[in-house]
Design a protein that fits this description.
The complex is a heterodimer of chains A (422) and B (225).
Chain A lengths: L1 H39 L5 H19 L1 H10 L10 H25 L5 H17 L6 H34 L4 H28 L9 H24 L9 H47 L14 H25 L7 H20 L6 H14 L6 E2 H32 L3
Chain B lengths: L14 H16 L1 H9 L3 H27 L5 E2 L4 H27 L9 H23 L1 H6 L5 H34 L5 H32 L2
The chains are: A mainly alpha (422), B mainly alpha (225).
């Protein structure tokens, strides 16, 4: 307890700095995955992708990041175990941030794919289970989270498959694909806007202080959907199309319409990613702040300090603005044969799944969800070739991340205990 | 980020190289027309020149084939079976070697056909080369098939094209029969070995259409999944 009174402010500052750096890492590391499909299918330029990411990652983090942050802050650990030793919770959370941040830096440097979510969860479970007691972890909740890591890619895959099928039935497999594309794509845009708005309003906005009734939530979402669809229709009408299209270039024109749609889904993807991953950085920070500012009391129900979500959001934006360009550049020329219609199906499915998870407070891996969605489109025979080997490597690396994060976190935990003489 | 990042999940499409390969093979086949013009006019230097072109194009097709085989490792998840793609490539390749073999055969013994047969022969040749061109058009539908997820109207369209190619192959063999009949009538005025040589050449031109149909059949098998 004394440690907290003497060093409270210092600890908050340390946690804040490390949390900010972690958010930075989340932005730099994940932006390629979130925006990659849009850049790779030539629907967006790199600059446009970064710009969209900056705006929508911030929005997602700030408006919809609250639930997942709460889970990471207090859902994984049984607070009762820390009532007498609150400083251990503070040390533990800071160690987790340090561990996840360092693992993230190392992996990015070496080019390994890493899930920021897996890193932080592994780190938190690590310090709590080993550093304190295996019973201080809410294993039920952790089990549910790990279960969701398996389930969400599957869900995204199914949704992507279905979305792709509707596009085939409504647009590609008709005798006037181009006209149908112009007619139906605005509906897809509206749908994207609707889902994002509805989930955010129903689940996310509490932390910003906005409370709407169910009817208001639905009507606002529908209104936003209509606005998006109308803007989309206008944008579509402004593209120059080749009127003498024979069948080959006919599909090329259809893809141009989908490219506009991909701008919308890219925004959704950035928003969803921000909403789910900001918590990886600021969830632990929020725990530290909550414990210190309550004088060592661990309250079951505490609100998020007002500056925490913005701090995380700014960190993500800084990370992706400064490093994102470099990372996305390496993607640009490497993708062949990814057309907007496939990219859109995968992206919308992934964004929907992630935002739903954010709404229910589940921290999931955006990249894993995207992989699941892409596989879903592949199952519908929509993608020319997918590297199964790479998918296997990605899965292996994620599994490894859990113990890696845990080990690092335990080391830092004991280090902090030693430094502060606990 | 390279190698294992999310975007490496997307592998290079094998469909484009297959289309490039059939383009090279078809260019080879089209060269048979000017080649035989020169042969029937007994303009052997010109015929040799065309043979050189054919050989060059066949080598080009070969290098596309080698590259494609290298970028088709077994860990790829594709909308068509890897085996089916390789079978298609094999048939396309067979077409190219048949063209080369045919033209070499013609030059070696300096084919001489009785002039009354020339007209029927040219018609027959044209029909055969047309069938290889039709096969190329069918293979190019792979792009559109991918766009539509190998389902629906595009599939019916391709199946119709394959049926047309079937009919074309029948027509080629009808014309072949006419040429053979005419040759038989003029047999006595030809040297025995020349006659045998001519029969061989006619047979091989007919086989081109057969192989073209095989190419289309491979596509039909892919659609049957």
């Amino acid at each position: 307890m004394d440690i907290l009174t003497s060093y409270g402010l210092l600890l908050i500052i340390i946690a804040g700095v490390v949390g900010f750096l972690m958010a930075w890492g989340v932005g730099a590391n994940d932006v390629a995955n979130a925006m990659g499909t849009s850049v790779g299918s030539k629907a967006l330029t790199i600059k446009q992708a970064i710009l969209i990411a900056m705006v929508f990652e911030f929005a997602g983090a700030y408006l919809a990041g609250g639930e997942v942050t709460s889970t990471i802050r207090k859902g994984i650990i049984d607070s009762n175990y820390f009532v007498d030793v609150p400083e251990l919770l503070v040390f533990g959370m800071i160690s987790s941030l340090l561990a996840a941040g360092i693992w993230l830096a190392v992996a990015s440097y070496k080019g390994w794919p890493v899930s920021t979510t897996h890193s932080i969860i592994g780190a938190i479970v690590g310090f709590a289970a080993v550093g304190v007691s295996t019973q201080s972890v809410e294993w039920g909740k952790v089990g549910g989270i790990v279960g969701s890591w398996v389930v969400t890619p599957a869900i995204a895959g199914v949704i992507a498959y279905l979305i792709f099928m509707t596009a085939q039935k409504l647009i590609f497999d008709t005798d006037k694909p181009f006209e149908n594309a112009r007619r139906y794509v605005p509906f897809y845009m509206g749908l994207a806007g609707f889902v994002m708005s509805l989930v955010t309003i129903l689940k996310g906005l509490k932390h910003v202080g906005l409370n709407m009734s169910l009817a208001q939530a639905y009507s606002t979402s529908i209104a936003i959907a209509v606005v998006v669809a109308v803007i989309g229709r206008i944008a579509i009408n402004r593209i120059k199309f080749d009127p003498d299209a024979d069948k080959d270039t006919h599909f090329a024109n259809v893809e141009k319409v989908f490219a506009i749609l991909m701008v919308v889904t890219a925004c959704c993807m950035a928003f969803a990613h921000g909403s789910n991953d900001v918590a990886n950085a600021i969830g632990p920070l929020a725990a530290v702040v909550s414990v210190v500012s309550n004088g060592g009391e661990i309250s079951a129900k505490a609100e998020l300090a007002w500056w925490i979500l913005p701090l995380g959001a700014i960190g993500i934006v800084a990370g992706l603005a400064l490093f994102g360009q470099r990372v996305i550049k390496t993607i640009g020329d490497r993708i062949t044969h990814l057309t907007p219609s496939r990219g859109f199906a995968a992206e919308l499915a992934a964004a929907t799944t992630v935002v739903l998870a954010s709404g229910t407070g589940l921290p999931i891996s955006t990249t894993q969800t995207l992989v699941g969605a892409v596989l879903g489109v592949g199952m519908a025979r929509g993608i020319a070739a997918l590297n199964l080997g790479v998918i296997r490597n990605i899965i292996v690396s994620w599994v490894v991340t859990l113990p890696a994060g845990a080990v690092l976190s335990i080391i830092f935990f004991y280090l902090l205990k030693f430094i502060f003489g606990a | 980020m390279p190698g294992n990042s999310f975007l490496s999940v997307f592998a290079k499409s094998p469909l484009k190289p297959i289309e490039q390969h059939i383009d090279a093979v078809d260019a080879c086949c089209q060269l048979l027309l000017p080649f035989f013009e020169a042969v029937l006019a007994s303009d052997w230097p010109l015929a040799e020149q065309h043979l050189g072109e054919i050989t060059r194009l066949e080598k080009q097709a070969d290098s596309i084939k080698y590259e494609l085989r290298m970028q088709l490792p077994s860990g790829l998840f594709m909308p068509v079976k890897r085996r089916d793609l390789l079978e298609l490539l094999i048939q396309q390749d067979k077409l190219a070697s048949q063209v080369k073999r045919l033209s070499t055969l013609v030059i070696h013994r300096k084919l001489s056909l009785p002039s009354p047969v020339h007209t029927a022969f040219k018609q027959f040749l044209l029909a055969s080369v047309d069938s290889t061109n039709q096969a190329k058009v069918v293979v190019h539908e792979l792009d559109s098939l991918l766009e539509t997820g190998f389902k629906g109207r595009e599939v019916s369209l391709v199946e119709n094209m394959i049926t047309e190619l079937d009919k074309q192959e029948d027509k080629v063999h009808e014309l072949e029969q006419i040429v053979l009949d005419q040759l038989q009538q003029h047999e006595v005025s030809m040297a025995a070995v020349d006659a045998v040589h001519s029969y061989k050449v006619v047979e091989q031109i007919g086989l081109l259409a057969d192989t073209a149909e095989q190419v289309a059949m491979r596509l039909e098998i892919m659609l049957a999944e």
